[in-house]
Prior knowledge:
There is one protein chain. The chain is α/β, with parallel strands linked by helices. It has a single domain, classed as P-loop containing nucleotide triphosphate hydrolases (Rossmann fold, 3-Layer(aba) Sandwich), CATH 3.40.50. Helix content is 36%, strand content 25%. The protein is built from ten helices and ten strands. A six-stranded mixed beta sheet has the order 6-7-8-3-9-10, sandwiched between helices. Strand 4 (62-67) and strand 5 form a beta hairpin.
Amino acid sequence: MHCTRNALELKGLHYRYADGTVALDDVSLLLKHEERVALLGPNGAGKSTLLGHLNGILEAQTGEVFVEDELLCPATVREVRRKVGLVFQDPDDMLFTTSVFDDVAFGPLNAGTTGTELQTCVEAALKAVSLLEVAAKPGAHLSLGQKKRAALATVLASEPVILVLDEPTSNLDPRARREMIELVRSLDITLIVATHDLDLAWELCERSVILDAGRITADGATRELLRDEALMRRHGLEVPALALLEK
């Protein structure tokens, strides 16, 4: 049972890059615990910039981020990064040691976990993504699907409250894509998925948020928004195949 009312709240986020590009323009968003939300929009909409604000990789120029009702600020950023696990689109950005085991151990070890507790924590994360048998291998020796699951394990090992996935199925073959979807579906956690894979959003997330030109333009039930052909076209998206099949 969570004693806090909200998992995540964004209030009036603005972010402008040095070249003058406005990436976020008054973005406000509220997530309850155990919600699963798809973050959708065309390239350049601001999705990656928004994700970077969720655990302090980027600092809001205006606005506030609250994680479990605690303001994200320099004094709290370390704790927030433990609570908000961000899995990058390119798993090679997260696999950099000599073995998958050490990659997964990196976060807990930095948080002070050692010895038997560390071993148990890492093995549990690898087991959750069905990669215990490759623990001794370097990440570079894995298939792309295995790399993406290993990257996910590096975050799960820190037992986050919120899991944030950036394009978790990009460039995967159909089998690896299905494995990733089923894996994410099995996780009992608050979830934010930034994706162009609209069928994934349809399957996994009961709620969808459309971001375009740095602003939230739609926020509602996935199966209502993604069926709206005019809305999808307006934001450079398409009605997912699964929605068409259910007509």
